Amino acid sequence: MTKEERIQKQKERLAEMKIPEQKLHEAGYRYIAGVDEVGRGPLAGPVVTATVVLPENFDVLGVDDSKKLSEKRREELYDIIREKAVAYGIGMCDHQVIDEINILQATKRAMKQAVEECDRALAKLAGSDDTKKIDYVLFDAVTIEDLGRPQEAVIKGDAKVLAIAVASILAKVTRDRMMVEYADEYPWYGFEKNKGYGTAAHYEGLRLHGISPIHRKTFLKKGLEDGRIT
After folding, report:
1. How far apart are CA 67 and CA 215, in angstroms?
2. Could you give the count of Cα atoms lying within 13 Å of 172 in the half-sphere of its Cβ?
3. Where are the domains of the chain?
4. For 31-78, what is each residue's pLDDT tens digit?
5. Are 196 and 190 in contact (CB under 8 A)?
6. pTM metric for this prediction
7. HEC assignment per residue over the chain
8. What is the pLDDT of residue 219?
9. How far apart, in whole angstroms, are the C-alpha atoms of residue 152 and residue 103?
């Protein structure tokens, strides 16, 4: 594939992913947000969510589900998205909350936090708490109770909806950076590489050193009698 062909394909992909938001704008909604999460499956660390409202003329090529992008490309897009977004917000729930209320409820709580933070960012732009507020929310396959505004759960939304895709990038980069920092504090589990997921090196660290303060105990029920995985 030539460079020109690749760019044309990216333009077509961008146009396709903008369609859901364009339809909502045509229906009269002004501030449409995409929301996604990262970190439901790992054995350690928080679940992190992001909410993003994009301008209608957002034209950055190469945006996709964060899992389909290289780390380098995610880092590049992270800064661009934050610069060009109308507003964004980050939410998270740590391992303790996950153990207390389960990962699904922790994810929903973190998503609601991200929506509320994005609302506050919009309000700051207007200088008022009431002038600007997200009026439609597109989630990646999740419905949030008591959100107080229209919403839609889009299956595989991070691959279909532009705002959800950019939210997945912000959430992924935010969480990955946190796990790299945790790797300095807890160096036995390979967090800088596995980001808390259950790789062979991670399980070996658990066998040799037991659980760390950021591990999710409900994800490691077996073999925890002495604090170690056997």
Report:
1. 23
2. 25
3. 3-176
4. 999 999 999 999 999 999 999 999 999 999 999 989 899 999 999 999
5. no
6. 0.93
7. CCHHHHHHHHHHHHHHHHHHHHHHHHCCCCCEEEEEEECCCCCECCEEEEEEECCCCCCCCCCCCHHHCCHHHHHHHHHHHHHHCCEEEEEEECHHHHHHHCHHHHHHHHHHHHHHHHHHHHHHHHCCCCCCCCCEEEEECCCCCCCCCCEEEECCHHHCCHHHHHHHHHHHHHHHHHHHHHHHHCCCCCHHHHCCCCCHHHHHHHHHHCCCCCECHHHCCCCCCCCCCC
8. 94
9. 21
Quote the tokens at residue 36.
Answer: 């996604």
Q: What is the pLDDT of residues 137-147, one digit of tens each?
A: 999 999 999 99
Question: 80-130: per-residue pLDDT in tens?
Answer: 999 999 999 999 999 999 999 999 999 999 999 999 999 999 998 866 555
- Identify the architecture of domain 3-176 in CATH: 2-Layer Sandwich (3.30)
